Amino acid sequence: MSGASAATTKITEALSADDLEARLYEIGAERYHNLHPFHELLHTGALSRGQVQAWALNRYCYQAAIPMKDASLMGRIEDRELRKQWLHRVTDHDGYDEDEGGIMRWLILTDGLGLDREYVISREGALPAVRFAVEAYIRYVREQPLLQAIASSLTELFAPKIHRDRIAGMLKNYDFIDDKLMSYGTRRLNQAPVDAEFALKYVRQNAVRADQQQQVVDALLFKLNVLWIQLDALHLAYVEPKLIPPGAFQPEE
Ligand SMILES: O=C(O)c1cc(C(=O)O)c2c(n1)C(=O)C(=O)c1cc(C(=O)O)[nH]c1-2
Predict the structure, then answer these.
(1) How many angstroms separate the alpha carbon of residue 153 from the centre of ligand 1?
(2) Which DSSP state fits 124?
(3) Catalysed reaction per UniProt (predicted)?
(4) Where are the alpha helices (DSSP H) in 144-209?
(5) Does 207 contact ligand 1 (Cβ within 6 A)?
(6) 132-183 pLDDT, tens per residue?
(7) Domain ranges in the chain?
(8) pLDDT band at 7, cuts 50/70/90?
(9) Cβ(38)–Cβ(237) under 8 Å?
């Protein structure tokens, strides 16, 4: 993409809330991981079962990290109301009462793909770059100012579309995928918009000065990189040039 057509990522003067929101959408439209070639392969049925296993096993690291980063974010929030609003993000993934939670639903997928559950949970076979990226996300949320920690979740603005494309594409194109295995994504279709709208509203209200708006843009860019690099790592290891790091998962085919 030419520099001239790229969304501006430097905020030199304070924007209106609407313009800030528009800028965030522009950046996402250019950099969200739905554009990564690995997702195209995954959703169109171009991958083998072993390659899909590699994706699901690595993506487990991200799933497992989400409630950890949200729990530590909550530990930094002084405002009781805001903390209360954030709480369901932890239980959405860890489960609560009758709801098994997103992590269990992800394990239903990895079970259905024939992966050993203990092996998946151990993360032993995950790619080092995926583990580093996920750890960086947790650390970012723990250490950066609250505005940035919250803004780093804004990639979820773009998530419902990718979940829809993935569910439809994978159900249609792989005979080893069924509705039960896709239950994680189906559930996220309702959860992600609520989370994204909340974070967006927070950012619109709290990022008023140019330096605050720059923090928000930086957080979004950081997070887009966290997502993108996981797919780079998967592509290099399992698509081409098939450079699987020592110790990482080896598909059988
Ligand atoms: O499948 C995806 O492409 C995708 C992307 C993202 C995202 O944009 O960070 C999330 C999810 N899924 C997801 O399922 C999820 O629970 C989630 C939480 C968060 C977050 O940053 O708090 N992102 C995402």
Answers:
(1) 8
(2) T
(3) 6-(2-amino-2-carboxyethyl)-7,8-dioxo-1,2,3,4,7,8-hexahydroquinoline-2,4-dicarboxylate + 3 O2 = pyrroloquinoline quinone + 2 H2O2 + 2 H2O + H(+)
(4) 146-151, 159-173, 183-206
(5) no
(6) 999 999 999 999 999 999 999 999 999 999 999 999 999 999 999 999 999 9
(7) 15-238
(8) confident
(9) no
156 CB under 6 A from ligand 1? Answer: yes
Measured distance between the N- and C-terminal CA atoms of the chain, rounded to whole angstroms: 36
The reply to whether ligand 1 has any atom less than 6 angstroms from the CB of 39 is no
What pLDDT, on the 0 to 100 scale, is given for residue 5?
Answer: 64
Query: Each residue of 24-65: pLDDT tens digit?
Result: 999 999 999 999 999 999 999 999 999 999 999 999 999 999
The CA 13 to ligand 1 mean position distance, Å, reads 30
What's the pTM value of the predicted model, to 2 decimals? 0.96
Q: Which residues partner with 99 through β-bridges? A: 96
**For residue 29, what are its two tokens?**
């439209």
Residue 242 burial by CB count (10 A; 0-12/13-18/19+): exposed, middle or buried? exposed
Q: What tokens appear for 142 in the block?
A: 């723990």
Q: For 2, phi and psi rounded to 5 degrees?
A: -75, 150
CATH topology for the 15-238 domain: Heme Oxygenase; Chain A (1.20.910)
Across the range 81-106, mean pLDDT stands at: 96
Does the CB atom of residue 157 touch ligand 1 within 6 A? no
